[in-house]
């Protein structure tokens, strides 16, 4: 049986992948439509890629983000990992490392993508994401909610009173 991935043929161990969550000032997340990579052609995913041998994870985040989007990574915070064992024999076993990134620069996609889009959390027409990125994005948005805590409750009779007054 031929391996599904050229990388699976070369390695019998998991491949580390970095995935970047980049947000705009409206809290939308950047996604890319894959093109010409041989994996999930035409599908949408978060920016990211393999961590090459001899390259630190931090440098891979910066390199992949710049390569795929033209954006400079000013800061990256590790969020969580996601283990993605192969669903079929011969496929890659990936360990996805998710980072939220603060960026600067002008967005310009490379040859690995045919389009980019910004998606909102509850956007009904948002495209499905591959590589488990949809589950990861749900986990990211849940963590954002947890950090913010519950929304403040407004008393219906509060009128113009300063907050904290009863």
Automatic annotation (TrEMBL):
Residues 8-143 form the Nudix hydrolase domain. CDD domains: NUDIX_Hydrolase. Its cofactor is Mg(2+). Gene3D superfamilies: Nucleoside Triphosphate Pyrophosphohydrolase. InterPro entries: Nudix_hydrolase (IPR020476), NUDIX_hydrolase-like_dom_sf (IPR015797), NUDIX_hydrolase_dom (IPR000086). The keyword Transferase does not apply. It comes from the Bacteria. Pfam families: NUDIX. Keywords: Hydrolase. GO terms for molecular function: hydrolase activity. SUPFAM superfamilies: Nudix. PROSITE patterns: NUDIX. The keyword Hydrolase applies. PANTHER family: GDP-MANNOSE MANNOSYL HYDROLASE (PTHR43046), MUTT_NUDIX FAMILY PROTEIN (PTHR43046:SF14). This is NUDIX hydrolase.
């Amino acid at each position: 049986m031929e391996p599904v991935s050229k990388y699976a043929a070369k390695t019998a161990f998991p491949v580390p992948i970095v995935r970047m969550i980049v947000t705009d000032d409206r809290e939308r997340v950047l996604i890319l439509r894959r093109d010409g990579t041989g994996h999930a052609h035409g599908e949408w995913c978060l920016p990211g890629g393999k961590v090459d041998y001899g390259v630190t994870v931090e440098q891979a985040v910066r390199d992949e983000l710049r390569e795929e989007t033209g954006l400079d990574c000013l800061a990256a915070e590790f969020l969580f990992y996601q283990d993605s064992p192969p669903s079929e024999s011969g496929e890659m076993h990936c360990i996805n490392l998710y980072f939220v990134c603060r960026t600067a620069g002008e967005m310009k996609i490379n040859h690995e993508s045919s389009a980019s889009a910004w998606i909102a959390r509850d956007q009904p027409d948002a495209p499905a994401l591959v590589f488990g990125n949809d589950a990861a994005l749900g986990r990211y948005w849940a963590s954002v909610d947890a950090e913010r805590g519950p929304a403040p409750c407004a008393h219906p009779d509060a009128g113009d009173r300063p907050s904290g007054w009863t």
